[in-house]
Fold each of these.
Amino acid sequence: MFKEFKFFPEQASTLAGEVDLLFYFLIAVSVFFSSLIFFLIYVFAVRYRRRSEDEKPQQIPGMLKLELAWSIIPLILTMIVFVWGATIYFDSYTPPKDAMEVYVVGKQWMWHIQHPTGQREINELHIPVNQPVKLTMATEDVIHSFYVPAFRVKKDVVPGRYTTMWFEATKTGEFHLFCAEYCGTKHSAMIGKVVVQEPAAYQDWLSGGTQNEPLEVIGEKKFQQFACQTCHADKPNSRGPSLVGIFGESIKLQNGQSVVVDEEYIRESVLEPNSKVAAGYKPVMPTFKGQVSEVSLLQITAYIKSLAKGGSN
Amino acid sequence: MSTAVFKPRPDQMGDNNEKKTSYLTAGFNIRSWLLTVDHKRIAILYLLSLTFFFFLGGMFAVLIRLELITPAGDLMQAETYNKMFTMHGVVMVFFFLIPSIPAVFGNFLVPLMIGAKDLAFPRINLLSWYLFMFGGMLGFAAIIFGGVDTGWTFYTPYSSTYANSNVILAALGAFFAGFSSILTGLNFIATIHKMRAPGMTWFRMPLFIWAHYATSIIQILGTPVVAITIILVALERLFHIGIFDPKLGGDPILFQHLFWFYSHPAVYIMILPSMGVISEVITCFSKKKIFGYEFIAFSSLGIAVLGFLVWGHHMYTSGQSIYVSLVFSVLTFLVAIPSAIKVFNWTATLYKGSVSYDAPMLYAIGFIGLFTIGGLTGVFLATLGVNVHVHDTYFIVAHFHYIMVGGAIMGYMAALHFWWPKITGRLYPEVWARVASFVIFFGFHLTFFPQFIVGYLGMPRRYHAYPEEFQIWNILSSAGASILGLGYLIPLIYFIWSLKYGERASANPWNAKGLEWEKADSPPTQFNFDKTPIVDQEVYDY
Ligand SMILES: [Cu+2]
Ligand SMILES: [Cu+2]
């Protein structure tokens, strides 16, 4: 009935070992302190048990040195743990430059995943081993949370914005993917698996299966479908600014500030076009809120990103 | 030169025979209870209502644990299961744990311990019980009319836009219970400031009073914020005013900030009074002055203040800025220190004491054992790198049950056993009480320890069905829960039994120090003391 009697989860990412090491350290510290306290209570309880009703124990109101000691030693220990934990957290936040990008959209109650090459999958994520992967995530409805225990990573997927996370798998195999934030009736069915493959097998997987167009090509179609190019054609006197080469660049806004164009900025430009208006243009762009789904938006974003690579319209 | 020791006990029919009616016999009809302004009777009203809610919440827990015995969701529908854990949380948090010790023991003991006749505002005290009951009834109505399924945390936009259940009713229930909590806090602060008997200086106050003072501050400062938040959720749900749902122009994370700004300190509303109880019990049953009185008193205040600055530790994975997370993490580590200090101080109090093991002491030692584990695992969660993995898994569930059940409820049980003779004038069967304390302690560990393991393995919380590899830990946990449930039923039986058959208690059955024991009868008379006591001893003058 029970295949295994496990205490610790599998380590399948570069992060897993680091997190576990700190976890073991915390266990060691905890075991030390709780044993100390339980031992003392036990010893005092036995040694000083009441022998007669009218015993008058010697009164000890306190001892400043001792009390300072047991305030300061835990303080130092916790600060060590703080720095250690913060370092891991920092690393887990900054994806390496060469990370492969995958787009995730959560939706009651499934995970919709799109690869740059156009492959789409539901509740499964195929990735190559030993390759950093960065996820850009959105949700069509409520908050979800993308959780892969074997990688020790988790990130909430929050409506109204993109969140990102990254990891690098170190082992091939299949690992649980859970939704960790309660999201309604079938929350516990919003699960799937991450399939980590050798690079060659991964390439096979990419080329196999249904015919897929790359994401940016789908995105270009959507771009036309929503008639974005009527204003954003890359030629002078267009009503809207050219989108060629803007990704990753810093652009000027009407109010004098400037912003770096990233996924979040593109998303905001499409859904709340008037909140940040590009300098030199009138706020005539209509909002596409409610018309364009998160999935399409990510495709359009991929298209705009591809324009940055020097491709032209 | 303690005068109290040589005085005849007030219960040995002595000099004054005119004022011998206890608060319990001051009136028998239902009116005399429902319209009472006596803090002790109001405490009894709370005791009865809270007992009801405790077992109601417990019933949901039983159903949850039954469902989780098998990996498949076979006992009930997912929707029903979601309602079970929501209602378990809502009832236990808002209608049991938050009021628990302050409403019952605080109400009963604050005036008695400081030598006052009643709280500063007796009518407001009664009002707060009615508000609580009104909130409780709304919450109960939410259950009867089909339940709520948002989780007790009411996260938006699920609660404000997507959920199809009685969110408003349940939230309003919490809202009114919150008002009751504010009024209780207000009453305690005014009472502690203004009604102390002559000679009861701040540093002669029992630590129970310090703990309630700190708790009251949190109740007054924190509860209004959650009340406003609840109203905002209701506005968005009813009138589609965009506050939290981005589709309406709102921000879902704003809700989390507001919610945890109250709900983290709320954890201290639950645990601080319990710590106050433990200080009283430990000193009494080791016949010792508390070790480091000032450290304990100020650590309560420290917790109350710092507790307001750590809410973001619930949101490390929410996408909040890493720098914000960093600040919240460091502050969370700091707030752990005062709790650690208390544990060390209690332990040191036993040193060279005269320690006896009556039931209240067993519960108090149980508290230290469980709270230590709860607190240490809190340090795991404060740690950024580790939190990301265990957040929203059973590790969290285990941690907060160690604090809230292992800590807060153990303290509540210790209080119940310690002051039961004072409240009812009866003794309970000591042997059964000791047996129950062991059953609870053992059942508790078996229920919740496996959840740490299954949580680290990656089992998310609020899962109706789960992968098979997690089953063994869930079976252990459910087995533990059945023992724990039994552990709570035994006291229910012997306490009720004792009301009629229990031996009569003397005024001070434990030979404890403190005005409630030395200067008041068991049960106390209507106005607590025959004449205003004058305090000329230091606190815990054993
Ligand atoms: Cu979910
Ligand atoms: Cu908290």
Note: Chain A has a mean pLDDT of 88.
Amino acid sequence: MKPDNPLVTGLALVAGLIFLSPALYSIWMSFQAADAFYAGKLKFTLDNYALAIGQYHFARYLLNSIIVSGLVTVIGITLSTMAAYAFARYEFPGGNFLFGAVIATLMIPSHISLIPNYLTLAKVDLLDTYAGLILPAISNGFAAFFLRQYIRGIPRALDEAAYMDGARPWQVLWRVIVPIAKPAILSMGLYVFITEWNNYIWPLVAVGKEDLYTLQIGLARLYRLNPGEGGIDWPLVMAASTITILPVLIGFVLIERHLVRGITMGAVK
Amino acid sequence: MSSIVLQDIRKSYKSGPEVLHGVSMDIEPGEFIVIVGPSGCGKSTLLRLIAGLEHCSSGTISIDGKTANDLPPQDRDIAMIFQNYALYPHMTVRENIAFGLELRGMRKAERNARAESVAETLQLTPYLDRKPGALSGGQRQRVAMGRAMARNASTFLMDEPLSNLDNALRVAMRTEIKELHRQLGATMIYVTHDQTEALSLADRIAVMKDGHLLQFARPETIYDRPQNRFVASFLGMPAMNFAPAGKLPGLEAAGDAMVGLRPEILSVQEQRPNGPAVNARLLFSEMTGSDTILHCDTPAGRMTVTATRRAIPEGKKELWIGYDAKDALFFAADSGARIEPSLQD
Ligand SMILES: Nc1ncnc2c1ncn2[C@@H]1O[C@H](COP(=O)(O)OP(=O)(O)OP(=O)(O)O)[C@@H](O)[C@H]1O
Ligand SMILES: [Mg+2]
């Protein structure tokens, strides 16, 4: 690797700060006491967090978001990986047609399926449940497509070596393909998680009980409740926002180092 | 150990012409078979068919007397060394070697001990905790070998397992393979481009060309009584000399046949010998150690002769090459098939 050019490093730092500034500013504001803030003074406090968690149930929303996004990611990625493996490695009648159908689902805007999904879930009585929040999101054509492309890049000789070693197809998948595709699977998982974390419309229509609110619904409701004397209590909203973005940031930092490079190096001549 | 019987195996890949044109082989349990042949003649394809990684287009494969055409590879009890190694890149050397044992339910301590002893044999101990990406080509090849050796399979398929090793290591590994064969008594099918390996390891050698099995016989038979000119020229270092019978004194009676003379049965002399001989002009010589290979021009064409280094004095160019008519092989000029013409007429 070339030694870092200080100019490039400096520019990257400045660019990074510019991108981060809104987040940094809102985190900073979330620690300000509202009255002092509006008076133009500085007074650090944790009251906004206490308020968001205590009076506005953000701990509960956080838990809901983690449950829903977590399960959508784990179940969705598991299913997508299995579908991707099948599409990448097996030839079966109608396989190409089926894969075409998967691609086709990518071209349907999600809002179009909103009402059919709602009616379906109403019929099976799953509105206002975790299942109702999770089920519509777990089939993910994009993830299946993306992972299939990645798996096709893994030399088939590795599958064959595993078969010779005595592996069954599912062992080939879990012991050979998945570990090698880990960077792709984690990237996809992060993407799915963030997408679901930020999902607003579906939880809004599928859930009416406050117990099942996700962070995004809770955050939106903070505006409507209009708690401050003179309008929106911004430091409170920023505390709630920080609660919303922090888990994603932490998650990203934790898996970031796995995302970068692939590991098929040295497998075949 | 398994018996493997191939009957009239044909194979065409999905996109492309037929690459095996009816190969039949009858392999005894515990036999060591070496397959040789030029690049692209179908050796790897044949191994993949036996392994169950490809389906043959027609013909039958039987393992231990049972038709195995549709038996999946996991159920054939075959260990394979791939020509391109196919190591698991996410596993350490130890895990690569032990993976097959793990799949068979061997306990961790036991399989690691096994992997370590195999690594010891293959001189891989210092690399047990490395991943394949951090190994040299020869080290990777030995891991590929270790993965097969750790298993107690009834058949081993080895696709050029020693091609990337240095000479000393290759000789050592050849001995290990022979030892493995002796210990396990497993059936082995081994592909190589190396003559010494072929002749020294094989119980029987299969010579292939362009998807055909030309000859399948014991090494001595292949060497002494090759079925045709291709087999004769393919095995033996340096390659057999060919010359028209009409130009070789003492062999004219063979008519228009081609005569094959191995370099080591020829003798170089300074004076015309008593028996049949051709005069020769030395073009250049190659030292191979104790021997030297003489490249000569003769009235019958170019000839190579293996001789001891002191056989001819330095600087001498005009020589005689003598031979014994009973050592000569004869091949039909048109088909290349070996013939045995009568020389007494
Ligand atoms: N997957 C494939 N699809 C189409 N043709 C193939 C495929 N694999 C091999 N072939 C063709 O089949 C023929 C035999 O190939 P094979 O790999 O068996 O040769 P080989 O004898 O092992 O050669 P080498 O000594 O170079 O390894 C070649 O002509 C090759 O191009
Ligand atoms: Mg090959």
Note: The first helix of chain B runs from residue 43 to 51.
